[in-house]
Amino acid sequence: MNYFQPKPISNFNVTIDIPGSKSITNRALILSALSGKTVTLKNILLSDDTRYMIEALKVLGNKIELNEVDKTLKITGNKNLQYKDIELYIGNAGTAMRFLSSYLATGKGVATLYGNARMNERPIKDLVDSLTQLGVKVEYLNNFGYPPIKIISSGIHATSVNIDGSKSSQYISSILMAAPNFKNPIKIFFTGKVVSKPYIDMTLKMMKDFGADIVSYNDTIEVNPSEYNLKEYLIEGDMSSASYFLAMALIANSTVTLRNFFKRSIQGDSRFLDVLKEMGLNIIAFQDYSITVAGIPDYKGVQLSMNDIPDVAQTLAAVALFATTPTKVWDVENMRIKETDRISALKNEILKINGDFIEFKDGFIINPKPLKDYRGDFLETYDDHRMAMSLSLIGLKVPGIKILDPNCVSKTFPNFFEEFNKIYMED
Predict the structure, then answer these.
(1) Has residue 427 got a pLDDT over 50?
(2) Could you give the residue numbers annotated as active site?
(3) What fold is seen in the domain 3-19+236-424?
């Protein structure tokens, strides 16, 4: 049986290296491809999700040179996109599925996008509806509203589109990034309660850095035909990946230094630092590209909407188990359509260790118990990288925790457990 078994530990001092951001890497790859120019990307993340994107872009005629040692990638984009009866497999990479859909729509041809079994259970109807408004023909090849999909495109000439962002902000980001390559200026209207809005802000910031002509107001964005023309782009460290080690410091009352942690981050998940500060985490030092934090012996729970930062809700759940007061999280219903139904999965595993987890439609409550009441067990990860990484934190306090299928972290943080094990090697 393949599992990772963390051991209880406290009062350590460790330095951790955070990988490049998955969200920024895949956005930078799409923006570079759309530019039609040669762009050098530095500090890229090399993980399952980004490799699926890289391979798909190669099939679509983008020239890519990858230096895995230096974590740099040179891409010459294929802006005049033409393709014929191609198939692109993207595993369970949500960003690849969604971003490639709009990239394909800027060109001419027929292409099929498909993934693994879980990807075929993740909705894409809201994005497809918007692409259809834009004049792209999209066919569902299996179940209505879900991948796999066939895209039949002859370019986009529309001047307006509505996008429902209530399930995923990636639908909005997908069309936004492609919009400068549309034939006409386009107004993009948001409908529904948009989730994970900081990811849209990140997309807009990157588009502007690359040279897009954008005007934003209220729930509408106007994008004019323009040239992406950046030659070089530095990718930030991944703030979602950083969350586990920030949490580690608080849970284990220890000191953790994170390298590749950008002080002026464009990622919404950087706000998780403020959540942990509210609970009691101390910042010891904060440089441009690193941070040192320290925990405290006892810390309190929190109550908050995590609509803007749902990807770190599982991390908070692990922290909440050892707080002195309850934690309540709401506005995260979209957690249910991620790599797994993350709310139900958290409930299953936390109840397994005798935790107190109350599930409701868009969130959860965790009532902490005395440490002696928790028990070790094998914890399922549901082929979900964030389940594996967050649940491993429980083992910092509870003996006998065993994380099944730990290799699923390769989706975004392939060497996560190597970094985790540093806490057992430092003096």
Answers:
(1) no
(2) 311
(3) UDP-n-acetylglucosamine1-carboxyvinyl-transferase; Chain (3.65.10)
